Fold this sequence. Notes:
Order of helices and strands of chain A: HHHEEHEHEEEEH
Largest interface: A-B, 33 and 33 residues
Oligomer: homotetramer
Radius of gyration of chain A: 16 Å
Largest sheet of chain A: 5 strands, mixed
Amino acid sequence: MLVDQILEGLAGEALLTRHIKLRDMDAEALIHAKSAHVSIARTVAAMEQADGIVIATPIFKASYSGLLKVFIDLLPQFALSGKAVLPIATGGSVAHLLALDYGLRPVVQSMGARHIVQSLFVPEADMSLADDRLRVGAQTGAMLKEAIYHFKRAVESTTDDRFLGHPRPIRTA
Amino acid sequence: MLVDQILEGLAGEALLTRHIKLRDMDAEALIHAKSAHVSIARTVAAMEQADGIVIATPIFKASYSGLLKVFIDLLPQFALSGKAVLPIATGGSVAHLLALDYGLRPVVQSMGARHIVQSLFVPEADMSLADDRLRVGAQTGAMLKEAIYHFKRAVESTTDDRFLGHPRPIRTA
Amino acid sequence: MLVDQILEGLAGEALLTRHIKLRDMDAEALIHAKSAHVSIARTVAAMEQADGIVIATPIFKASYSGLLKVFIDLLPQFALSGKAVLPIATGGSVAHLLALDYGLRPVVQSMGARHIVQSLFVPEADMSLADDRLRVGAQTGAMLKEAIYHFKRAVESTTDDRFLGHPRPIRTA
Amino acid sequence: MLVDQILEGLAGEALLTRHIKLRDMDAEALIHAKSAHVSIARTVAAMEQADGIVIATPIFKASYSGLLKVFIDLLPQFALSGKAVLPIATGGSVAHLLALDYGLRPVVQSMGARHIVQSLFVPEADMSLADDRLRVGAQTGAMLKEAIYHFKRAVESTTDDRFLGHPRPIRTA
């Protein structure tokens, strides 16, 4: 629901959004890295065309979820090359705030991301349900707005790059 | 095969070893965190009784494998409490040497491990097959011996703790 | 010399550059965090006005230099708020490639940086001197060009933000 | 004061302790890496003879202090080879809990430490002064006791290794 709220904030005339839930993919294909499986292949194709990716994960055991990493392991090495990325996480305790920046960013970086904007950590205690809609605290709300603004700008900048015909970044090792 | 070689080096009068391959577990159970599934529940029970755990993973995208993390996410928060741990990884490039220490250790630490010995990184180029047996280079061989020696000592020390009736470590957050 | 080469690549009609060497600052002031000392205060003031910062460090003991961190510790918590940052490092071995992404980025991130572009790691073996000028290998040269291009674009985007009167990002904890 | 309290807890018939304050070292020698300076050389010599090292640091900007890293940069690459290490930190917010495990451990690991016991993070709010003595909360007190117990055991194990004439670990890169 947090992701849907962000996608709503992002959507506009110039921006199409799509929410892909890793949990709905085929378990066998994920675990045994069958990247040709239709549920995987379609997602990879959709990602290729995207200028920006929002990566959302819960924090378990001081790091991002295994489900996320299983999916990442299936992707081409530079699957995020030239793209804007917004990492967000929810966690039981603010003590896990650094897990995104220390744990997830180096992984995203290694896939050639062009711009990873400030990541967003939302403590579970700061979210509640009212009338089937997610409510967040005032500070989280403001940070959410910030994150959406900066991610939008990063996506635009990425799109400009593409029109300028700038080659994809070079990365080795 | 690298793990089997380490387990051979560890086995002795006082030490029973067992090799659990995450890849053989039920994919559905792993992805949907069905910890009651027999293939999961048995492994968790076996781990509970162990004094030491060797964690082996390839390095993908600058970090440990998603399969490993999916399994870790299924375990109780302090599943490694009071245990000795030896982290080992194989990787295509020595450029990923730091992935174990920066990426995996904090996760293992968060599960209450008592002693994580020096981790071992084996570059793929340093391994070969001869007569169906894994061969490693001289330096890797020496580091392997070192790792086995220290892990054995750490396991013994852990066992002593248990006989001394020392309570399990306290951890919060 | 690597930094000077990058600054040359950056300089142009619209961009003023300046190279600050931490090694020339007052040692007493650095170690005892005397942020009022003139050599510190001037640098902090110069940084405040900058739209982009290139952070260059050698890798020692699997992480950025202590000198860099001593200086960072002197800065206000959000000293990089709204700025573009390009992290670069030199190191004896490609085995330390991940030190920037795992070690330095979370620190830079915690200071509110708006856009940290792909970091650049240059192995010492890839640099040489010819006629008092630094020479780098072909691949490093291409990565350098990439880094300069993306950093320039990030700085421009940051400047636009400022003209749009967008408030500085909000960060807590 | 926190360190002194730990050293008190450690001291006994078989264990000599000594508290070295980095802040008292010569600033010039630290910043310009003059490892021959007497205040540095003496400390390095004392460390060489130690079986265990308690490393204490505040958390600034999501990581260990620059002063600590400046000192570490002065040490030989394997200055902690074969030693037991207890990392402790104080910080303004529990949000920085992971900074020790993600930030400091890889550095300590790279210096060949034999056993880094569970690190200890003490939030500033959990410490107070009463009659010129540091008071900590009940939970921190219990964790402190745990840490001292495990560090003592790790030091003993290290000492045994030395008497067994076991060679120092091999590390490369």
